[in-house]
Amino acid sequence: MITLAVETSCDETSLALYSDSGEVCKEITLSQALVHHSFGGVVPELSAREHTRNILPLLDELLRTSPVDLKKVDFVSFTLTPGLILSLVVGVAFAKAISYALGKPLVPVHHLEGHIYSVFLEKPVDYPFLALIVSGGHTDLYLVEGFSRYTFLGGTLDDAVGESYDKVATMMGLGYPGGPVIDRLAKEGQPVYNFPRPMLKENTLNMSFSGLKTAVRQVIEKGSYRKEDVARSFQDAIMDVLEEKTLLASRFTGIRRVVIVGGVSANSELRRRFGLLQDKGLLEVYIPRPRLSTDNALMIAYAGMERFKKGVVAPEDINPEPNIPL
Ligand code: KG4
Ligand code: ZN
């Protein structure tokens, strides 16, 4: 069985062809990072326009470089929610048009479910496991007991971690997206600032990052600082919180297996830290390769395949929503 998958929830236009045998596994992604770079974040209207401009040329490119043609597609998977509504609309309308033209079903996918299953594209993980989702819009911990069996354990009460990276980068004039550049700068910095680790010692799986952002702003506004040191100190604070809350979730549930997904899971320090926890035998850690950490249609294809096998098919009048919970 082969699916064509469509992902346009934020600033990546991504299409994939994927078969459940794994034989067909081809993805093409166009990042809009340069378009939004000087704005410090994704501009929704520009994002929707870019998706509209690029999605058909991207399909042409995918088909040109892939061993199967569109007629072989059994169903179309697409991201339904959450995301920027204008951006989602482009992908949903596109997926509907293709499904109508082919006479093949449409399968809606939750973007966060896609992120969780990005790990499975490399190797399936045994249930139950914990999922730490760290992206531009989400910082959440879930207990996953089976496909589509998710229990929310806790998450950020304010800013998401990726959003914090992006805001701190903007404060230092580093442009959007902030994660990769702070990741790079932090390697050259010293932890000279003792930034707050909000809610670190509280016996809850909730988190908060807006106080940390304010503390960083205060240092930056004083005017004399090394970007590398701010990046390092900020990143250390973030990682301390993510590490501690994941360990706490593991203690609460008795589960050591954890998948870490979403754009921030591309971070090199996160990978190093959680690798150490695994070496100590405290956690069993699964992180997809960096290419699959950030938004991509292959993860939507994988989740779409599982959903289709369970009989999930979208009605013709399905409409995207900015924020349906997982
Ligand atoms: O999952 P994603 O591609 O899109 C959303 O669903 O939000 O995540 C994007 C976020 C951005 O905030 C970006 O700055 C962050 O992931 N990010 C990183 C790294 N690469 C991307 N954050 C920290 N370190 C990185 N290496
Ligand atoms: Zn995402």
Automatic annotation (TrEMBL):
InterPro entries according to UniProt: ATPase_NBD, Gcp-like_dom, KAE1/TsaD, Peptidase_M22_CS, TsaD
Gene Ontology BP annotations: tRNA threonylcarbamoyladenosine modification
Protein name in the entry: tRNA N6-adenosine threonylcarbamoyltransferase
Residues involved in Fe cation binding: H111, H115, D295
Binding site for substrate: I133, V134, S135, G136, G137, D166, G179, D183, N267
Cofactor binding note from Swiss-Prot or TrEMBL: Binds 1 Fe(2+) ion per subunit.
Example of a GO MF term: tRNA N(6)-L-threonylcarbamoyladenine synthase activity
EC annotation from Swiss-Prot or TrEMBL: 2.3.1.234
Transmembrane segments: 75-95
Residue ranges constituting the Gcp-like domain according to the UniProt record: 23-302
Organism: Thermocrinis minervae
